[in-house]
Every structure is written in C-alpha cells, then in structure tokens.
Amino acid sequence: MSFDPAEYVFSTSEMPEAIRAATVLPAIRENIELTTSDGLTLVGELALPASGPVRATLITLHPLPTHGGFMDSHVFRKASYRLPALAGIAVLRFNTRGTSSPRGTSSGAFAEGIGERADVVAAVEFAVARSLPNRWLVGWSFGTELALKYGALPPVADAVEGAILLSPPLHRVTDEDLARWGASGKPMTVLVPEFDDYLQPVEAAARFALVPQAAVVGVDGAKHLWVGEKYATRVLAEITARVLDTAVEPLPAEWAGPVAIAAQ
Predict the structure, then answer these.
(1) Of 197, 188, 209, 147, which is closest to residue 169 (Cα–Cα)?
(2) Coil vs helix vs strand at 160
(3) pLDDT per residue as tens digits for the range 57-89
(4) Is 81 helix (H, G, I), strand (E, B) or coil?
C-alpha cells in the first residue's frame, strides 16, 4: 500500500517549534500519477501552499535509483515538508521509471538516463497542465544529468525557467549538452560540495564554462549526499533564493502553527 499524505497528524504547540529533519509543515499534498509518452505510469506527490499563491514550482529529479535514489531522497523530502509553507513554493516529486519509495513503484525499468527523457517530459507537462507557475528543474546527482540532457530540448525548454543542480557528476553529460544549455540563455545554479565524490568546485567551474550563465557555488564542508541538517537547509535556502529571485537568506528555523512529524 502506498503512503497517503492524509495520514500526517498535525498538532499545535503553545510556543513556536524548531524545524527539524522530520518536521512536516502544513501544505495541500496530493498523491499523483504521471503518464509517459511510452505508456508508463510514474507515481509521485505534489505539495502546494496551504494558503496564498504559488510563487514558484520545483520539478525535482532524484538521484540514481540503482544506488538508493528516489523521490524521498532527503533534500527533496525536506523541500516538500517545508517550502510550501515557508516560501509559497510548490514541490513536485516523483519516482522515475522502475523506482520505488513509500509512495509506491513507478512502472517500467531503469533506462540509464535515456528512457527517462520521457519521465522528465511527463513531469513538466503535468506541471503545465496544472497551471503551476515559474517552473524550475531541480536535479540531484543523476537527476542533474536528466536536467542537463533534456531541459534545454523541447518541449521542456519551452516550459521551464531554468535549472538548479545539486552535486552534478556529469557522467552521462556531454559538452554538447552543456553548450545547448549555454545557448538557451536560461539561468542555472550549480551547488557543488567541497568534498564531492565525483566533481568538486574547481573542476565544476571549468566544465560549466560552456554554460556562461551558470552560477557555480562551492559549498564548504559538504559532501555529495548533503548529509546533515546544516547542508540541507543551505540547499533549500539557495533554491528558494534562485526561484524567487531574492538574496540568499536562511529560511526560518522555527514554526508557530500546526506541525506533524514524519516517520523516519
């Protein structure tokens, strides 16, 4: 049985509560299904602000499923827990083909980043059909490769504002892919951990020279998986600043209002 976000139990304390790893803030959460052009059904979740307008939309592309990546990879899970309430940002998460999570299993099988082009298109088309505004691709590790390979190609290129990349390994990405993004002129922010296992800041700056508009940001002390609340909150602050076109500021660390605690 897949997880239903309606199972969250919210309660309100007399005093503001610290926002921790498992803190779930109020949002309108919906289990969704995406249908790809090759007939697969992908499972996911859409989290919308509980009140007020949607100021931006994150279409998240998760890390490598053959190495434990899925829609609940912790940075994306925390984005869905927090950003609708803290910043008015909608968060669309889904499992690429053949990937499982508590939400369920998407049909099909891992396709080495090739068949997944249809998955990216399906997610973006869903966001367009729902009239979700200010759409951004947010890729992490393997997900950055999907964003780089397909985000500057139609129909995705016509439907997104830009991309935010977390820990790009660039294993499946060619110079042609990078140059295409550069030619698109669409903004890109690249967050690179100081101690990344695959691509560290100096090398990343050199590779992304083919994307002149890319802002490559080295994050001191961080590793590929962004383990630790310090690094997860830094990533969420960087994402928020980029999609809302504001200065990078720490997100609130406390919440006065209903909260739920997610199972870990």
Answers:
(1) 197
(2) coil
(3) 999 999 999 999 999 999 999 999 999 999 999
(4) helix
